[in-house]
Structures are given as C-alpha cells and as structure tokens.
Amino acid sequence: MEDTNRSQDQREEPDGHAQQYPDSDDFHSLVSEFENADNEGLGRRELGPMTIGHVDFVNGEGAEEIMGFTATRHELLELVRFWFREYMEVRTFCFLYAMSGSTEWRTSIYSQNRLSRLEEAIGTEAFQEVIEQVEKEFESKLGAREWRIFKHGSKEEREMLQDEIQESLTSLLESKKEDGAQGSKERQPSGGCPIETLDRS
C-alpha cells in the first residue's frame, strides 16, 4: 500500500494529493482529549463557540490508549482490516463526490498512521494480504468501471464520472421535490384518511 510508506510529516489527502501537517506554531490551537502515537497534529480546532474536526476515534475519548492489554496477531490483522476500510471509505467517498472536509482529512491521515505501525508489527506480507482482501470488497461495492477509474483513471475520466454522479443526485433531489409537492396537494375525504399515503421511505 503506497500511502502508508510516507513519512510521518506527510500523508495523502483523501482526494489523492499530498498534505503537509499544520505548522508547528499552529499545534497549540489543536486540541486532543487523548494524545497517542498517531494523532499528533490531528486535534480538533476550537474557534470561539464552534468546534471543527472533532472525530472521537482520532482526537476524542475513543483515541485513548489502553495500557496493559497485548493484542494477538489475529487481532492485529483485524485492526489492519478495520483501519484500511476506514481509509477506503474516506478515499472512495471523496473520489465519487469530489468533496472532502475536516473529518475526512483527519480520518485519512490517522488511519494511514495506524496502518504504518501495524505493517511494521506484523510484516509486509501478512499486511498486504489483508489490504488486497479489503480492496476486493471495495471493487465489488463500487463496480468494475468505477474501481478502474478510481485506481487508474485519468483526470478526464474521474471528472466525467463525478459529473455523472452529480447529475444523478440532482435528478434524484428534483424527483423528491416533485413527489413532495404532489403529496402536499393530496386531499382527505370526510373520514379523515388520506386518499393516498405519501411514500416516506
């Protein structure tokens, strides 16, 4: 997995571009309830009454390291599976919908940090076997064409696919609006029961 071999101060953004950590002078404004070996620079940012970038398992209570428990090899392999799925969920979401945010950025960087240390712990061969298994899951989920474009597509192919998805979403939203407008015009008979029940699924 090419991404997990990057240096500690540089990881890949969910959209595929390298992203530098914030300057060290900015670290004081990033808050983590629990600091661990992999969340440096990934704390939430407090802006007055607003909080940006709170991700529990990255910088909240879920990031607390529990000492005194040693994971087995089987458990470490399952952690590889978990973190690579998290990473791929972010990557494919950002790829398909051409968007990213503070949660996606933190999740992507943090999962890569975790995966790097897991690979060191269990060895590249065992690590790569799990990576390939998860990639097959996502290939099946996305479909052959989308997976090929995700992995090897040109800039033009990516943009074309993203445009298709946006058009589909726009069409779906317009259809929902029309259904809602039609539903609001329904009349009820004197018995009080609607002539037709609006589908709310």
What Rg, in angstroms, do the CA atoms define?
Answer: 22 Å
Strand order of the largest sheet: 3-4-5
Question: Gap between N and C termini, in Å?
Answer: 40 Å
Provide the helix percentage.
Answer: 40-55%
Low-pLDDT windows of residues: 2-10, 17-28, 187-201
Strand content: 5-15%
Number of helical segments with 4 or more residues = 6
- The 3D shape can be described as globular
- Tally of individual domains: 1
- Let me know the largest β-sheet: 3 strands, antiparallel
Mean pLDDT: 77
Structural class comes to: mainly alpha
Instruction: List SSEs in N-to-C order.
Output: EEEEEHHHHHH
Overall number of strands: 5
Please explain how this structure is put together.
The protein has about 200 residues and is mainly α. It has one domain (about 1-140). About 55% of the residues lie in helices and about 5% in strands. It contains 6 helices and 5 strands. The strands form 2 sheets. A 3-stranded antiparallel sheet has the order 3-4-5, with no helix packed on it. A two-stranded antiparallel ribbon has the order 1-2. It is globular and about 60 Å long. Mean pLDDT is about 75; it is low at about 1-10, about 15-30 and about 185-200.
